[in-house]
Design a protein that fits this description.
- The structure is a single chain.
- The longest helix is centred in the last third of the chain and has 20 residues, at about 240-260.
- A six-stranded parallel beta sheet has the order 7-6-5-9-8-10. A four-stranded mixed beta sheet has the order 1-4-2-3.
- It starts with 5 loop residues before the first helix and ends with a helix.
- It has about 260 residues and is of the alpha/beta class.
- The protein has helices at about 5-15, 20-25, 30-40, 50-55, 60-65, 75-80, 120-130, 150-155, 170-175, 215, 240-260, and strands at about 25-30, 45-50, 70, 90-95, 110-115, 135-140, 165-170, 180-185, 200-205, 220-225.
- The protein folds into two domains: about 5-95, 2-Layer Sandwich (60s Ribosomal Protein L30, Chain: A); about 105-260, SPOUT methyltransferase, trefoil knot domain (Alpha/beta knot).
- Helix 7 (about 120-130) links the parallel strand 5 and strand 6.
- About 35% of the residues lie in helices and about 20% in strands.
Length: about 260
């Protein structure tokens, strides 16, 4: 079985940088679970693994259907990885083409929008959350973190296989929607006291600055996640992924109650 060439090692390592991912149209999934969770969902250019993993994971190998399967040493994996500990396996996949978003989709589905979310770990966690909560489309501003970065892919725990992240001119897309557009703010009615629909777009903003003015101008339903009790001194804000979890849970809770 062939081993990674020096050129391939450099290519895989370079995929930790957004520019190189876009130039090559490739991203990398690293680690046993990440590769298993993404296998069969994206065209695979290279499957690179230690001998022991290749010997023990024929089912996953068959599912991936890689163009090239390469046997790597520990030193090879260390040169290529973006993780602190070299993995047993990594897969280099084609970045899929982004579909064009139809604003009418929000008339019948709940959609999440991310405005300048910078941390790839937060982004990946939100993708994983959306997968759990049945949200299959995320709109992202152009300056939101890259979902195909190794850390973001790792943080999705395989959910990137089922949730589509579409980068777009977010204010323009939101302005074209006829469905409700929700946003979380500090000066808004409590989410627990206002009606929530089963469709529409729910926006979450930058970790430090929240939702930008241009995006906020498109919001027609503002929400607050209140602290408890209201008069008690507390943290300044919630982590964006935590805020998304609370908000989407409340939306889905209302849906379940309306069916009973």
């Amino acid at each position: 079985m062939e081993q990674p060439t020096n050129a391939l090692r450099k290519l895989v390592r370079s995929l930790g940088v957004s520019r190189h991912r876009r130039e090559n149209g490739l991203f990398v999934a690293e680690g046993v679970k990440c590769v298993a969770d993404t296998s069969g969902h994206f065209p695979c250019r290279y499957l690179i693994a230690r001998t022991s993993w290749l010997e023990d994971n024929q089912i996953t190998i068959d599912r991936i259907q890689a163009d090239n399967i390469l046997q790597a040493s520990a030193a090879d994996m260390e040169r290529m990885t973006n993780l602190s500990t070299p993995p047993q396996v990594m897969a280099v996949y084609d970045i899929p083409d982004e579909p064009k978003f139809d604003p009418a989709t929000a008339d019948s589905h709940l959609i999440v929008a991310l405005d300048r979310v910078q941390d790839p770990g937060n982004l990946g966690t939100i993708v994983r959350l959306c997968d759990w909560m049945g949200v299959t489309t995320i709109l992202a501003s152009a300056d939101t973190a890259d979902i195909w970065s190794p850390k973001a892919v790792q943080s999705t725990m395989g959910a990137i296989s089922r949730v589509c992240v579409i980068y777009c001119d977010l204010p323009a897309i939101l302005a074209s929607c006829s469905a409700p557009v929700y946003g979380t703010f500090l000066n808004a009615p409590s989410i627990y006291n206002v009606p929530l629909t089963s469709n529409g777009i729910v926006i979450f903003g930058n970790e430090g600055q929240g939702i930008s003015d241009a995006v906020a101008a498109t919001v027609n339903r503002r929400l607050l996640i209140p602290s408890f009790p209201p008069e008690r001194p507390t943290s300044e804000s919630l982590n964006v992924a935590t805020a998304a979890a609370i908000t989407l849970s409340e939306f889905r809770s209302r849906q379940l109650k309306s069916r009973n």
